[in-house]
Predict the structure.
Amino acid sequence: MANFLKTLRQGMLKNIEYTLLKKDGTRFTGEINSTVIKDARNRPKLFIAITRDITERKLIEDELKSSLREKEVLLREVHHRVKNNLQVISGLLDLKSLQINSEEVRQMCQDARAEIHTLALIHEHLYQSRQFTHIEMGEYIRDLVNFLCQIYADKVQLITPVLDYQKIYLTINQALPLAVIINEAISNVFKHAFHEGEEGTLEITLKKAPPSNVFIKIKDNGIGLPPDLNIQSTHTLGLRLMKNLVEDQLKGKFYLSQDKGTSILIQFSLNDKE
């Protein structure tokens, strides 16, 4: 009765689902579409309703929903296991570094551990999220900075990280190379930007500009890079790695500035088609 009155008021109702009874008493899911035919004076003249059995369609929809839930559970389990395996490797490197006397080799183990955790953190965020194709990079960067502060605790006691980020979602194919770039840039600041015992600031900014440009700035007020350094011809592995990842993987632009410290600016476009 309620839908009959609603049809009279609105003139039409579409795709209203009911549980109905057949002549033999069995139940089925029906879909009702109704309309009102009015006369020349705009008064209701006829009420037409069509009901069709959509039981089979509903069964297919339920099967698809069940299949989707199973795939989501499987994807969550995959990300969970990948994260756990990477964390095991990270833990083994940490244990091995305690047995090494060489400071250079110990530093290499520490750097490798940071790189592995960078990837593990991606899978952790995917595992915790309800969507498995995109990463919210602002919270990811916050968590990565917190971890790197622990890894390089002996070097960062006097360095203050300052984060300014918007909520920006990236596809996995963009999030992974960007995570490696950010890890490399922040690790370099903690290791090389300041003299021992010197106070400093590390600023990390993540912004989005219309229509779909992403800007990331990582800046410190430390000692800076050598004045004669040429980003196009440098043999510094870290800088070459970051530049190549930005240009080849993100299809973006990499800028390096050395005014009152070191500033790295990365610009690229969001890719929502993947």
